[in-house]
């Protein structure tokens, strides 16, 4: 069932949980995420990041994502992750995405505000909700080759007072906040400041907060983030890694002269990603306390 970002975040707020938001830049990850959500009977967000355009064009995978969401037995929001230009945001809206993120976090504050306001205007014409970002996690949403840790000097923690002004001036439906996470693979345990989440919530009439850079965060810290007011958690790197590790194990198990079939590798990766996503979704929904 295809639903909007606003609808799914409202359900998260009512249940005091976070909705898992998973990048699906190929058919295998798309199936893994939706099948996991259906097995757990949980709502889910599938998303595509602009930086994955080189892997597969949005024009190709986007309509497939929308169609898969419509056919799913659980509520599914189809979301644009880290849209870097307003033109790309419009492209996702035209395809039928039901949530979009405009990411102007690397721009000067005033420019981020003005562009986000335009994104909200564009999305409102389609009845679609908008996520924006204030602060910086310091890394792009690639998950490939990143070596991240809490000492990343490019991080900028979200200022709750500035968040209040930003939300008031833009009218966004959700705000991605920087409170200690980093995109990519962690080399060291992150030190998370949950007071940022609580203060942003308090300053913005309890607007849903989004957690980026969730891969590698402990179960306990995920629970603390949800209790602090995080209502959407982005997750991709470790899901993607689980598929790669499954393929590595599968290939190791073959005899020397046994043929290597891509279809078999695909199935192994898809199953591993599905189980990894189920574990993440249980954690975000506080099902494993």
Give a short overview.
With 289 residues, the chain is α/β, with parallel strands linked by helices.
Written overview of the protein:
It is built from 10 helices and 10 strands. About 45% of the residues lie in helices and about 15% in strands. The protein has helices at about 5-15, 25-40, 60-70, 85-95, 110-125, 160-170, 195-205, 220-230, 235-250, 260-285, and strands spanning about 20-25, 45-50, 75-85, 100, 130-135, 145-150, 175, 185, 210, 230-235. Helix 2 (about 25-40) links the parallel strand 1 and strand 2 (about 45-50). By secondary structure, it is of the alpha/beta class. It has a single domain (about 5-245, about 275-285), classed as Aldolase class I (TIM Barrel), CATH 3.20.20. The strands form 2 sheets. It has an 8-stranded parallel beta barrel with strand order 1-2-3-4-5-7-9-10, surrounded by 10 helices. Strands 6-8 form a two-stranded parallel sheet.
């Amino acid at each position: 069932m295809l639903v909007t970002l606003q609808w799914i975040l409202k359900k998260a707020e009512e249940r005091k949980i976070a909705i898992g938001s998973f990048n699906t830049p190929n058919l295998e990850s798309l199936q893994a995420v939706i099948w996991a959500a259906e097995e757990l009977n949980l709502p889910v967000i599938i998303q595509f990041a602009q930086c994955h355009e080189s892997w597969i064009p949005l024009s190709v995978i986007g309509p497939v994502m929308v169609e898969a969401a419509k056919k799913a037995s659980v509520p599914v929001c189809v979301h644009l992750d880290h849209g870097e230009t307003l033109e790309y945001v419009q492209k996702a809206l035209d395809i039928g995405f039901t949530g979009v993120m405009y990411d102007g976090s690397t721009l000067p504050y005033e420019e981020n505000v003005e562009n986000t306001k335009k994104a909200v205007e564009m999305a409102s014409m389609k009845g679609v909700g908008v996520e924006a970002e204030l602060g910086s996690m310091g890394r792009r949403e690639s998950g490939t080759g990143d070596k991240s840790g809490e000492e990343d000097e490019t991080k900028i923690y979200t200022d709750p007072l500035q968040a209040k002004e930003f939300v008031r001036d833009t009218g966004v439906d959700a705000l991605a906040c920087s409170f200690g996470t980093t995109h990519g693979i962690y080399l060291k345990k992150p030190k998370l400041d949950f007071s940022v989440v609580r203060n942003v919530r308090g300053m913005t009439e309890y607007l849903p907060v989004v957690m980026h850079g969730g891969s590698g965060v402990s179960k306990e810290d995920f629970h603390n983030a949800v209790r602090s007011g995080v209502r959407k958690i982005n997750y991709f790197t470790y899901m993607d890694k689980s598929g790669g590790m499954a393929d590595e194990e599968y290939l190791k198990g073959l005899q020397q002269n046994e043929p290597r079939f891509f279809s078999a590798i695909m199935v192994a990766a898809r199953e591993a990603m599905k189980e990894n996503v189920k574990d993440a979704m249980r954690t975000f929904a506080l099902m494993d306390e």
